[in-house]
Amino acid sequence: MKREVAAEIVDSLKEAGVDFVATLTEANLHDLVIALGEDPAIHHVPVTREEEGIGVCAGAYLGGKKPAMVMMNAGFLLSANAIATVCIHPGIPVLMLIGHSGGVGEENAGHATVGALTEPVLQAMHIVYEKVGRFEEIRPAVRDSQTLARSSRRPTAIVLNKQALR
Amino acid sequence: MTRHECLSILATLLKDEDLVVTALGWVAGEWHSVRPKESNLYQINMGMCTPLCLGLALALPHRRVIALESDGSVLLYLGNLTTLANKRPGNLTVIVFDNQCYLATGGLPTATAGVTDLAGMARAAGIRDAYEVRELGDFEEQARAALGREGPSYIVAKVDPTGKRMSTNIDGKEAKYHFVRYIEKSEGIRIIGTHAMKMD
């Protein structure tokens, strides 16, 4: 991810009120995780596994924070049970920023299956999501996804495609 | 030593405003029976109780947060020990009731029935104050110490593989609303908006 894209995401998150972010890094998310960690307005919690981050975000919400989780799509798939039981069932909003490896433009053959499964699983879980690639799409997508998460009391997702990640 | 005996002691050590979150299983009903307070949150799904308490403790650093965990639950996401150790929330106490089996689903052994030492793993992860207790007197002493110190503290209480099949009759949705409304009231903040057009 380019540094200006990472900076735009961080700024958009803050403008949307997000003040607590759990992350699990990956090559494509490296600059975003660094930018989040360096921002004093955001409480950053690096986690070891994505489900853990979902739990941490849910707890932060119960304590009055406005949380987001940054992860790759492999981690989202791994987190399906945590999202269902800790967020969707009780009604806890967590904005998820999901890097979409294995989508259009993917050059690594090993990511294709996870890439193809990502949107169907989001849809199966009734998670409303926006696919974002172009720079100018980032700010409104973050703002609107956070608004829906808060009003619907459900997790929402932004799927960052290759254009945003590279 | 039974979990219920430990919980009965713990209840006497807490203030009403201490936030207590229970894992899934009979621990929720047992805790509700000894301390039915609005500052409790019940039935957090397997593996999620300590991570959720970490987020809660970081969000409210001036409140004491107590996680009532089980060995089966903690074993699901052991990486969380390292996150807990590195974030070092001073206000968080995790109590793992280690009955060395998956009691609620029939009683098959967990890894702690074998050679695994959870308190040792917590210490190796970097949680300095991690202790195993096997007697009620030791449990009370460690719980008291944990609540009085800058944490995090991690107590592994080796308990009998028995429990009371108690239900709180509180669903996850209801538990969340009760708890969030209590946090809003006690902290003077708004978490869930009351108007459809303006949430924050």
General description of the model:
The complex is a heterodimer of chains A (about 170) and B (about 200). Chain A has about 170 residues and is of the alpha/beta class. Helices cover about 50% and strands about 15% of the residues of chain A. Chain A has a single domain (about 5-165), classed as 3-Layer(aba) Sandwich (Rossmann fold), CATH 3.40.50.970. Chain A contains eight helices and six strands; from the N terminus they run αβαβαβααβαβαβα. In chain A, strands 2-1-3-4-6-5 form a six-stranded parallel sheet, sandwiched between helices. The longest helix of chain A is centred in the last third of the chain and has 18 residues, at about 135-150. Chain B is about 40% helix and about 20% strand. Chain B has helices at about 5-15, 25-35, 50-60, 70-75, 80-85, 120-125, 135-150, 170-185, and strands spanning about 20-25, 40-45, 65-70, 90-100, 100, 110, 130-135, 155-160. In chain B, helix 1 crosses helix 2 and helix 1 (about 5-15) runs parallel beside helix 7. In chain B, about 50% of the residues are buried. The interface of A and B includes residues 43, 58, 61, 90 and 147 of A.
SSE map:
The complex is a heterodimer of chains A (166) and B (200).
Chain A: H1 3-15, E1 20-23, H2 30-38, E2 43-46, H3 50-62, E3 67-72, H4 73-78, H5 80-88, E4 95-99, H6 112-124, E5 129-132, H7 135-152, E6 156-160, H8 162-165
Parallel strand pairs in A: 1-2, 1-3, 3-4, 4-6, 5-6
Helix pairs in contact in A: 1-2, 1-7, 3-5
Chain B: H1 3-13, E1 19-23, H2 26-34, E2 40-44, H3 49-59, E3 65-70, H4 71-76, H5 79-87, E4 92-98, E5 101-102, E6 108-109, H6 118-125, E7 129-133, H7 136-148, E8 153-158, H8 172-187
Parallel strand pairs in B: 1-2, 1-3, 3-4, 4-8, 7-8
Antiparallel strand pairs in B: 5-6
Helix pairs in contact in B: 1-2, 1-7
| Number of separate domains of chain B | 1
Please report the distance between the alpha carbons of the first and last residues of chain A.
Answer: 5 Å
The CATH superfamily of chain A turns out to be Thiamin diphosphate (ThDP)-binding fold, Pyr/PP domains
Query: What's the story with the biggest beta sheet of chain A?
Result: 6 strands, parallel
CA(first)-CA(last) distance of chain B: 47 Å
Give, in spatial order, the strands making up the sheet with the most strands of chain B: 2-1-3-4-8-7
Greatest contact pair?
A-B, 38 and 39 residues
Stretches of chain A where pLDDT is under 50 for at least 5 consecutive residues are none
**Main sheet of chain B, how many strands, which sense, barrel?**
6 strands, parallel
* Overall shape of chain A: globular
User: What fold name goes in the CATH topology slot of chain A?
Assistant: Rossmann fold
Regions with little confidence, pLDDT below 50 for 5+ residues of chain B: none
Mean model confidence by pLDDT of chain A: 96
Strand tally of chain A: 6
Broad CATH class of chain B? Alpha Beta
CATH domain fold name of chain B: Rossmann fold
**Beta-strand residue percentage of chain B:** 15-25%
Gross morphology of chain B is globular
Helical percent range of chain A? Answer: 40-55%
CATH second-level architecture of chain B = 3-Layer(aba) Sandwich
Alpha-beta content class of chain B: alpha/beta
